[in-house]
Amino acid sequence: MIAAASVAAAQAADPSSDPNAVLALANMPVLWICALGVFLVIAIQSVIYMMAARKAAPAAGLSQQELKTTFRTGAIAAIGPSLAVVLVAVALLALFGTPATLVRIGLIGSVQYETAAASIAAGTVGAELGGPSYDQQAFAIMFFAMSLGGAMWMLSTLILTPLLKKGEHRMAKVNPALMTVVPAAALLGAFLSLGFAEVPKSSVHVITLAASALVMGACLLLARLPGMRWLREWGLGIAILLGLAAAYLAQAAGFAPAA
Amino acid sequence: MTAPFATTSGATATTSTPAASPGSMAEFDATTSRWGRLTMLAGLVFSLAGPLYLVFFADLGVTATALFTAFAAVAGTFFVIWIIEPITYFPILGPASMYQAFMIGNISNKLLPSALIAQARIDARPGTHRGGLAAVMAICGAAFVHLLSLLVFVGILGTWLISVIPESVTDVVRVYVLPAVLGAVIIQAIVSLKQVRATAVAAVVAALVQFVLVPLVPALGMAATAISVIVTLVIGWYVRKREPFEPTTTEGETHP
């Protein structure tokens, strides 16, 4: 513990690991421009798709009124889930900065994969996300690895979609056990492993992990009640906030020194 | 453009139209796959440009080895998901929406519900042309709301919020947001995947790796999650439901 503390102290003295220095790097104008570029590309794609849909609507038996209705219905249905994503994203701003949070958590990826990827990548350079060893270099390596990981999803979509289009009927016959058991095992293995990796860090980490898990479990249980289905989307954000509240109280109660 | 017969009206349009006549579903397919691919490539480039700028021009002394190691650790954990997720969503989304969904993100919690609600609203069945177009329009609507709410509430208000919150609070958030996310995500995965055996295998394997293997061989720390995933995959496959239980292959692994 003494060795660890002195290492932490030495790293804290490194000016690039000052949280404000990391955030200054993470919020650089260049990164903002790249993030807004992704926003623009999605907007352009949507406009192209809507123009194509308007043209093809008569052939598909859709009236122009129905096109408007489906657009509006999709938009309204997305309000709740979008705000739920906003809540989660805001919680990660202090860690990733705004541009990375917007692109990685808000768009392309999701909070589950991206925080997992970030934690794994930071671990390879011996850094703990948000801890004293989380310096500018660790941020750059982590941001690179999570972005390239996200790019792999897009790459596999680009490669697989034309193939699946050709062999739609063949793919439907793939062993269904393969398609359910394998991804479930991979995801559970990844998230449980990352969760357990938090345990040795400090008792406050354990309290945070447990509080968040308990709140999420309660939210998912309550979501089964009539009229409470919205908790399925909001549960994640609520659990993260209450988990952080538990961390704040636990630290204030002296369970662990400020990191 | 030399379609022998044009399908211009009615709900009877078929996919067998050999070429893209104006206003046909074939033309829609051609337009969306060409522009869907191009825009997705553009999104891929923009999403990589930021981190590449930091690596090459920010003078942080990042080595190629460090980048490769970090990516390899992420790839070891998620390579299966990269391939399986697009295959899983293809039958639900259809080719056109694939290029939307995997760039906009948050597919299962936002885009799919939007598409399904919009289809139900106009009585269009999934898998038909009507259903396909309804899904595309609904995802466009969802994208519009999502881009706007992210820009306003995260980009502008969130950035401002972070600047006014006391430092003692942001410090706690920065240090403990990872366990706060993981605790909830683990429960969400267990409940939504509904795979009791895979959950049990993953819990035992991950605990052994993190609490026994890593303390014994600290050098394996950076590959710990990839090891957990691969071992869980292999054991999870052998003990999956519908297969006769084989105690000899799993006993030694799960009960140390």
From TrEMBL, chain A:
InterPro entries: DUF5058
Recorded superkingdom: Bacteria
Tagged with keyword Transmembrane: yes
Pfam families: DUF5058
Keywords, alphabetical: Membrane, Transmembrane, Transmembrane helix
Transmembrane feature ranges: 28-52, 73-96, 138-164, 176-197, 203-223, 235-256
Protein name: DUF5058 domain-containing protein
Species in which this protein is naturally found: Citricoccus zhacaiensis
TrEMBL record, chain B:
Transmembrane segments: 35-57, 64-84, 90-112, 133-161, 173-191, 198-216, 222-239
Keywords: Membrane, Transmembrane, Transmembrane helix
Domain of life, source organism: Bacteria
Region feature Disordered, mapped onto this chain: 1-25
Record-given protein name: Uncharacterized protein
